[in-house]
Amino acid sequence: MKISVVDTPGIFDSDNYTEIVGREIMACIQLSWPGPHALILVTQVGRFSAEDAAAAKYVRDIFGPKSARHTIVLFTCLEDLGGDPLEEYVQKSDNRNLQDLIWQCRNRYCGFNNKATGAERERQVAELMETVQRVVFENGGRYYVNQLYLEPNLHDEHVKRFVEQNRNARQRFSHPIFLPFWKKREVGKRRKGERRERGGEEEEGSREEKKGRKKGRGGEEEGGSREEKKGRKKGREEERKKREVGKRRKGERREEERKKREVGKRRKGERREERRRGRRGKEKEGKREEEEGSREEKKGRKKGREEERKKGEVGKRRKGERRKGGEEEEGSREEKKRRKKGGEEEEGSREEKKGRRGGEEEGGSSAAAGRLSLSAAIQRRPLSRGGRGREGEGRGRASS
Known about the structure:
The protein is built from 9 helices and 3 strands. The chain is mostly helical.
């Protein structure tokens, strides 16, 4: 990182503008163009005098009132503090000019021990560079620019006019409302003392005047003065009552305005709460609708699965019934075949039975005919004990 340091001569020792001071200022502007990132104001510990305070003011006159944003106060000769920290010296210092300068520089300061060597010296330089980096960071990395840096052809008249403008502005802003709090207190105390002194002298003069008037007045004048005093007292009393009434009415108006503000805030909070509840209600309703939709969807899916399962069961049952019907039909066919076969067998057996019955009937009829013929023969011819009878019996047996 490249660092450029511009060391200015002692042009701030006096606030009188001269041609030499103008040339040095123009040289400083040219060397630090396009603008410095930090301004380091060097002073010695314990020796910040009125001349140093005037030099600090002259720096602001040359660089402008906003240069304090880029300014760092560097104290030298820290060895004179006897080992005490620099922060304690700055905080406990009763030098109001120094306090004012530190306040304007936003509490940016550091110190150098002129007798330091080695690591201590490097630490001091590192602390200064850290403070410079803090200034650059606080100003957004921008360098300081005023009207003089923007002039294409800088002349002594430009510098003189710019310095005069800044000086007039500094004197105009030296009013107590633009001062730090300690300077405001000092100015207030001084003015209060002046008012007391003037008031004491006037009061003493008024007392002497009253005594002279009292001696020179007669009884009538004294009576007139009493009436006048009473009238003045009465007027003061009326004014006091009017002020009290005005204060009371003013307080009442303030109270009414406060109540109106409270009512407005409460209503605003209620409207905000209603909007919040409305949003929550809408969100809940949306969630509820989503849940109901998901439930209906789940129910529809479940119902669809149930219907599919039932259809599958019906299909299986019908398929089983068809299969069972086929088996029964096959069985009925076999049974029909068996029945048909049994019918044929039965028909055969019937024919056979008929044939047997016919044979038996034919044999029976022949036997019956034989028996009838035998009985007829027996009836026609009575049986004898002789051979004819036996012969006829033999025939009958033979015929049977």
